[in-house]
């Protein structure tokens, strides 16, 4: 510790570490500890019954799968958006750039109502999709759309600065050395942005798993079919079953933590390779 | 999160009180209520104040808080400083006793008529011209009818809907098994299960999904009134449940704040003729029989049954029907199995 303190340009390692630990504890660890403590009031069979009920299991599948799909869509189109925003100038670019952040600012309930208004079979878009027999609102697709919407800014905002710093000369060198466009993207650009992309992916995924407000308006909330896990937690709390609600919360938290850890591992691997 | 919000609320409240502290004699009451009573209590607060000041009391400021009945009850248990609560069902009020010991055991017998100064019932709202020709509960189990009602697990209002249908079937077909089948058939016809009544209204009115919307009578009136007359029609079923939204003083809070006198007067005055007429104006059925008689045209007669008569009280109804492993869960499972 003294070594790292001596080497650092800015002093104060001890005090900043202390502050970080305190800050994280108050804001994050305490509520999580409280959540886990709640479940200690349950016996093991009670806990298992609460978290493994078929209705709950069906909701895990939907919540995690829809979040995974939403984050994947964002990884592709978010990167594309970031690329366009960094590499090209066009009229109204500043406005588009600002629009990307809108999902952060808009209350999620508003987003949910707006999306369902568009995609319900009476809505502007849903009306046409209905002709092809595609039902978006009140189906699993609706859940994916809501989760994609709220996750978009994460990928764009993490990839954008990396792309902006990326030196164009590297691309030119690659082309001069005879690489095709695809090879340049695959071997030169992608490795450079991969760590940032994975971070954005992880953030979008984590945000989607916990999302409640926008989804409940568009999903139809049919038990065993389009019911997300956060809604079941609310249902448990509504019948004053705080323990059951906490139990499901702990399972979600643990699953999300493991998945995020895996993504972080991938990111570490990618940045070492790069 | 909740305690944090409550602390914030308290700080805000403290700021409000501090800023007005020179008027030391003024009383501030907080009425914690559920969603659709907002307009009624706004008008009632003025009515009460006129009456209260006429008795040589300083003006009372009544603040209102509205939200889902269950989450409002939880806020009060978690420390929201309510002087009185005016919620949607006795089960939520009783939670103040069971989980917070904020009110005594006999709270519901302290005021007349089960502490419910106004009542309502569950009716059926259909689209203009009643295209599916819906007359009574029996039409809700038809294969060609789609029903909109929120999820009784998350919505207090939806529990009334469920129990109304169950009670009707029980009276008509005579057994719990038959009633179970009847209610299961209704939920088979539900295409969207919103978590709260407001969302369900949105689904029926804005999204135009469903043929019939099961609703509180006062909300059905509001929908007809606000969303254009002639767009919707209210069908009053032959038999329905008597919805009694109860009120009570929150003893622990009023004794600490010294507001008991004003809080009790506030609730008692709900039983005055003026307040009863005001409730009728806002589409609640006046509980006092002599006033109710004057509104027979507005509120048609229904064969009422109560939660106590048919379900042996809210605790029982909650336990048997809505808690985990209850009959509603069984219905959901059966429907999911049938769909596979």
Automatic annotation (TrEMBL), chain A:
Alphabetized UniProt keyword annotations: Membrane, Sulfate transport, Transmembrane, Transmembrane helix, Transport
Matching Pfam families: BPD_transp_1
First-listed, main subcellular location of the protein, grouped into a coarse class: membrane
Record field: transmembrane: 12-40, 60-86, 98-120, 132-156, 188-209, 244-263
Subcellular location: Cell membrane
Residue ranges of every copy of the ABC transmembrane type-1 domain listed in the record: 60-263
Protein's membrane topology: Multi-pass membrane protein
InterPro entries, per database record: CysT_permease, MetI-like, MetI-like_sf, Sulph_transpt2
SUPFAM superfamilies per record: MetI-like (SSF161098)
Task of the protein: Part of the ABC transporter complex (TC 3.A.1.6.1) involved in sulfate/thiosulfate import.
Recorded family membership: Belongs to the binding-protein-dependent transport system permease family. CysTW subfamily.
Subunit structure: The complex is composed of two ATP-binding proteins (CysA), two transmembrane proteins (CysT and CysW) and a solute-binding protein (CysP).
Protein's name in the database: Sulfate transport system permease protein CysT
Gene this chain is encoded by: cysT
Automatic annotation (TrEMBL), chain B:
CDD domains: PBP2_CysP
One matching Pfam family: SBP_bac_11
Main location (coarse class): periplasm
Superkingdom of origin: Bacteria
Keywords assigned by UniProt, alphabetized: Periplasm, Signal, Transport
Presence of keyword Transport: yes
Keyword Signal part of the UniProt annotation: yes
Cell location: Periplasm
First and last residue of the signal peptide: 1-26
Recorded family membership: Belongs to the prokaryotic sulfate-binding protein family.
NCBIfam families assigned: 3a0106s03, PRK10752.1, PRK10852.1
Identification of the protein by name: Sulfate transporter subunit
């Amino acid at each position: 510790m003294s070594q790292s303190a001596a080497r650092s340009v800015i002093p104060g390692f001890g005090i900043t570490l202390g502050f970080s630990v305190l800050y994280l504890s108050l804001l994050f660890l305490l509520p999580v500890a409280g959540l886990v403590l709640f479940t200690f009031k349950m016996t093991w069979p009670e806990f298992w019954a609460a978290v493994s009920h078929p209705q709950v299991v069906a909701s895990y599948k939907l919540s995690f799968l829809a979040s995974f799909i939403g984050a994947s869509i964002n990884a592709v189109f978010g990167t594309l958006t970031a690329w366009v925003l960094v590499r090209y100038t066009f009229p109204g670019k500043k406005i588009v750039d600002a629009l990307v952040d809108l999902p952060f600012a808009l209350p999620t309930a508003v987003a949910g109502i707006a999306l369902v208004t568009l995609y319900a079979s009476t809505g502007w878009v849903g009306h046409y999709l209905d002709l092809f027999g595609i039902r978006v609102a009140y189906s699993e697709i609706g859940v994916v759309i809501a989760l994609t919407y709220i996750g978009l800014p994460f990928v764009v905002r993490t990839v954008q600065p990396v792309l902006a710093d990326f030196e164009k000369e590297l691309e030119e060198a690659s082309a001069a050395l005879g690489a095709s466009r695809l090879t340049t993207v695959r071997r030169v650009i992608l490795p450079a942005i991969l760590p940032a992309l994975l971070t954005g992916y992880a953030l979008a995924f984590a945000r989607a798993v916990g999302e409640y407000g926008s989804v409940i308006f568009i999903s139809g909330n049919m038990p065993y079919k389009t019911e997300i896990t956060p809604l079941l937690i609310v249902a448990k709390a509504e019948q004053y079953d705080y323990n059951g609600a906490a139990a499901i919360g702990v399972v979600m938290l643990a699953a999300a933590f493991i998945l995020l850890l895996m993504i972080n591992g991938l990111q570490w691997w990618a940045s070492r390779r790069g | 999160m909740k305690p944090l919000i409550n602390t914030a609320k308290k700080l805000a409240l403290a700021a409000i009180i501090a800023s007005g502290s020179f008027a030391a004699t003024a009383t501030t009451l907080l009425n914690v209520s559920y969603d659709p009573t907002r307009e009624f209590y706004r008008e009632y607060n003025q009515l009460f104040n006129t009456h209260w000041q006429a008795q040589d009391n300083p003006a009372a400021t009544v603040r209102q808080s509205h939200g889902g009945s269950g989450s409002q009850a939880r806020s009060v248990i978690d420390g929201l400083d309510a002087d009185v609560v005016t919620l949607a069902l006795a089960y939520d009020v009783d939670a103040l006793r069971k989980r917070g010991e904020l009110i005594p055991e006999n709270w519901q017998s302290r005021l007349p008529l089960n502490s419910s100064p106004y009542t309502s019932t569950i009716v059926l709202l259909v689209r203009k011209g009643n295209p599916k020709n819906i007359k009574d509960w029996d039409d809700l189990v038809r294969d060609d009818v789609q029903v909109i009602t929120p999820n009784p697990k998350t919505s207090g209002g939806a529990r009334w809907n469920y129990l109304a249908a169950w009670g009707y079937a029980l009276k008509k077909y005579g057994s719990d098994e038959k009633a179970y089948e009847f209610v299961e058939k209704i939920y088979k016809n539900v295409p969207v299960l919103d978590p709260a009544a407001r969302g369900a209204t949105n689904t029926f009115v804005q999204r135009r999904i469903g043929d019939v919307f099961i609703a509180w009578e006062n909300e059905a009136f509001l929908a007809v009134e606000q969303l254009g007359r002639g767009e919707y029609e209210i069908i009053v079923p032959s038999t329905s449940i008597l919805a009694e939204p109860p009120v009570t003083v929150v003893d622990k809070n009023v004794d600490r704040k010294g507001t008991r006198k004003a809080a009790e007067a506030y609730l008692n005055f709900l039983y005055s003729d003026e307040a009863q007429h005001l409730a009728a104006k806002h589409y609640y059925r006046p509980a006092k029989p002599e006033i109710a008689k004057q509104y027979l045209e507005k509120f048609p007669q229904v064969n009422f049954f109560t939660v106590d008569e048919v379900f042996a009280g809210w605790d029982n109804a909650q336990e048997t029907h809505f808690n985990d492993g209850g009959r509603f869960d069984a219905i959901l499972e059966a429907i999911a199995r049938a769909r596979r």
